[in-house]
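Full entry
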Amino acid sequence: MQYNNSSVRRQDRLLPEERALQLLREGEYGYLSMTLENGKAYGIPLNYVWTGEVVYFHCAPEGIKLKAMEKNPAVSFCVVGHTHVLSAKFTTAYESIVVDGRMELVADDEERMKALEAIIDKYSPEHKVVGLKYAKGSFHRTYLLRLTPERMTGKCKQNL
């Protein structure tokens, strides 16, 4: 994985790596963009967890994401942080990180369970015992997807 803002057009709006990774770690959800089998674009907001190396998503054992990933595993994932519309200036203050990489189905049961535990730790830490019990009970019908970053970029526009 490489955090590399060299290709960002607006070099005056770079988000420092430390803040970009914090946004990725703490963001509530992001938008996954994929290409469908017919070549059309597909985007969907998803909960996720960043482990410091990969991004995990959970899903049902069938659906659009799985079909798209099978045809083309190249994806883009964007998390948007704080935003503020500056109506008098006709712009918006924002911060975002984009993760481009390859997505694949996680086959190893131990990794799948660790990913589910990481998701529980992020979204429901106060209910971890119940969450783990639920995860084990629904394990057979829960798929885990792993996005391995190839490039990450971050941008921001501060309040003016």
Observations:
- DSSP finds four helices and eight strands in the chain.
